[in-house]
TrEMBL record:
Database matches in InterPro entries: IolE/XylAMocC-like, Xyl_isomerase-like_sf, Xyl_isomerase-like_TIM-brl
SUPFAM superfamilies, alphabetized: Xylose isomerase-like
Protein name (database record): Xylose isomerase-like TIM barrel domain-containing protein
Pfam families xref list: AP_endonuc_2
Region of interest: Disordered: 1-21
Biased composition (Low complexity): 1-16
Species of provenance: Pseudofrankia asymbiotica
Domain Xylose isomerase-like TIM barrel: 53-280
Length: 311
């Protein structure tokens, strides 16, 4: 899904009063890691109050939150009701709660997964979240058989449904559900109406998923689209790149407008999210990163809308 556009575009800044609404009528969402200021295994560097306020100022309608950060906030004395009030007062909704990795596991890992799930479901209830992000972070060699993945995913969807949640299963090229077709097969075989697929542009661009595969997934079963970009010639292994070297949408080699255009079919109702994990960007201020994220995503959506109008 690459194109030949050079990654030299100037970084835009948000304009006051602009609203980066998604192309399907849902607000743009800043994923947790886009605003955290830290790596994936740490609680956010910025306060929750600052994150929701800055996200709102940048024009985001929603944000994401991890169970790790939620646990840290509670340990520091915040209450679920108090956190919800901060979000509500800013006009920003916690749309996405994440990330559940071992819902398929047994033994000690299962016990840990159940604790994480309880945190995620509690967080979802506190904030009125829309969906939970999940993945199967296990190699093909160590993964359980397909039928067990289906059984465990169906059970997870049932538990999430009790909280009014959608479940977005994310495919990743370095794990067992390596492409959109494999992820959709689990979702389809599970047969749960609240189950669907989350599409992360990084995993499309660095994997084997193509637009044909994505077109096989019913539009209404796309839970979320996560935007980022990648360098034309990466200097890192793919796992290292995804965790620390993603680029702002439109700043790299991916045809993101084409991806958006592919997914915007009748029945689509997904939020458009920005998920950029970049070690260098973490050195910048929270407002700088929030405004860049919103404006870059808005530019991609405008390009996609232009293509649709022209074709």
């Amino acid at each position: 899904m690459t194109n030949t556009r050079a990654a030299t575009a100037a970084t835009p800044t948000a304009e006051a009063g602009e609203s980066p609404a998604g192309p399907v009528g849902l607000d743009l969402v800043a994923c947790h890691h886009t605003l955290s200021g830290v790596g994936v295994a740490e609680p956010a560097r910025f306060s929750f109050a600052d994150r929701v306020a800055v996200a709102s100022a940048a024009g985001f309608g929603g944000i994401g939150l991890t169970w790790l950060d939620y646990e840290h906030l509670l340990a520091r004395g915040h209450s679920p009701a108090g956190l919800r009030t901060l979000a509500d007062d800013s006009g920003v909704r916690v749309v996405e709660v994440e990330f559940l990795n071992a819902w398929w596991a047994d033994g000690e890992r299962r016990a840990e997964a159940e604790r994480h799930e309880r945190l995620v479901l509690d967080m979802a209830a506190a904030f009125g979240a829309r969906h939970v992000g999940v993945g199967a972070s296990v190699s093909p060699e160590a993964a359980p058989p397909h039928d067990l993945l289906v059984e465990r995913f169906a059970a997870l969807c049932d538990r999430a449904a009790d909280h009014g949640l959608l479940v977005g299963l994310e495919f990743m090229p370095f794990f067992v559900l390596s492409d959109a077709r494999r992820a959709w097969r689990v979702v389809a075989d599970a047969g749960r109406p609240n189950g669907g697929v989350t599409v992360d542009a990084f995993h499309v661009g660095r994997g084997t998923t193509d637009l044909v595969m994505l077109g096989e997934i019913p539009a209404e079963r796309i839970v979320a689209l996560q935007l980022c970009d990648v360098a034309a010639d990466p200097a890192w292994p793919v796992l290292e790149e995804t965790l620390g070297h993603r680029l702002w949408p439109g700043q790299g080699a991916l045809d993101l407008a084409g991806l958006v255009d592919c997914l915007l079919r009748p029945g689509a109702a997904f939020p458009v999210e920005v998920e950029v994990l970049n070690a260098a960007y973490r050195e910048d201020s929270l407002p700088v990163n929030a405004h860049r994220a919103a404006r870059c995503a808005r530019s991609v959506l405008a390009e996609a809308a232009g293509r649709g109008a022209g074709g």
